[in-house]
Amino acid sequence: MNIYKLGKLPNMLSTTLFHAMAELGYEGLILCEPEDTYISLGYFDKTEELIDLRKCKELGIGVIRRQTGGGAVLLAPGQVFYQLLLSKSKVPFKVEDAYRKLSQPVIRAYRRLGVEVEYKPINDLVVKESQRKISGQGSADIGKLFVFVGNILIRFDPDLMAELFALKDKSQREIVRKSLWENISWLERELKRRVKSEEVVEVLVEEFSKDFDFEGYASVPQDAFDLAERLREEMTSEETILEDTGRRHSAIKIREGVYVEIK
Hints:
InterPro entries: aa-tRNA-synth_II/BPL/LPL (IPR045864), BPL_LPL_catalytic (IPR004143), Octanoyltrans_LipM/LipL (IPR050664). The chain has helices at residues 13-23, 47-50, 53-59, 95-113, 158-164, 170-183, 187-191, 197-211, 222-235, 238-241; strands at residues 2-9, 28-34, 38-41, 62-65, 73-75, 79-87, 117-120, 124-127, 133-142, 145-153, 216-217, 251-255, 258-261.
């Protein structure tokens, strides 16, 4: 099992590559950062009820539907992704037990970076004192592997996220914007200093290495890049984005336990 330390990735590779690696059966830990800004939809999200696609197009922000759960999120430079691809035999059977166990290296990493966080079932890591969400996580069975993904927010733009939701009027948008500011946080907000991605990546490597036996660093195989490109076409297609998943969105989930009604 290897570590893939990839730096900034363009063309939504920060999402498509872990799907490709999992489908091809490569176990390991991927650490990367998006070079582009885009919306990642959860597997069950009904796009048109949740995201303003016209606004996304106007701002040049792409949209992709991932195979992991969780809600729609804004992905952008300033977020470090950890993507753990494991044999299912290495993961607790119950989903919450898996999240709790796999969150521990990330919780320790935040502590070393200067922020005390805790796990809040089922998807979130929150700042212990304020209970603001500081990391969203998701999982899925892809191919023969269990995939656990999340991000460490170095910086985040709640105002832009609020602009991209499909809302009926300005007052509703202001309520969402205010709730995002009140319930989401990020490293630079907590630490009141600039944070480099490389600093975060090194701490994550050290903490995940305490819980998993990695052979070392490796390059991504070419077949994974090739498959990732094909997956990008599929995961961003109109058919995939506009798929009727059967879900109806009466509220936007800001974090565990906090929702803003939109209907």
